[in-house]
Amino acid sequence: ELLERLGFNNVDKKKFAELIYRKICSNYLYNLRKNEYGAYLFNVCAELETIHGNMRKTTIALKYLPDLGVIQVNTLT
Predict the structure, then answer these.
(1) Could you please report the per-residue DSSP string of 10-75?
(2) pLDDT digits (tens, 9 = 90+) for 15-57
(3) Cβ atoms of 29 and 41 closer than 8 Å
(4) What does pTM read for this prediction?
(5) Which end of the chain lies in a sparser environment, N or C, as judged by fewer CB atoms within 10 Å?
(6) Contact 2, 48 (CB under 8 A)
């Protein structure tokens, strides 16, 4: 729903998660840093299709919580 509001075309949750996973596995990470709470913050860049059928390069800011083994999406630009 958030992706649709940003103008992207029907990106389902599973495909979005797979896209991010592939970027991480191929070491396609930017701005990797650790915050004061022990979480790792980093960005990946991906191309997503807009509602008008164009491809748009998007930066996805993520947070990895090592104690929980969870990656959260912080922002999309």
Answers:
(1) ---HHHHHHHHHHHHHTT--EEEEE-TTS-EEEEEEEEEEBTTS-EEEEEEEEEEETTTTEEEEEE
(2) 888 888 998 999 889 999 999 999 999 999 988 877 787 888 8
(3) no
(4) 0.79
(5) N
(6) no
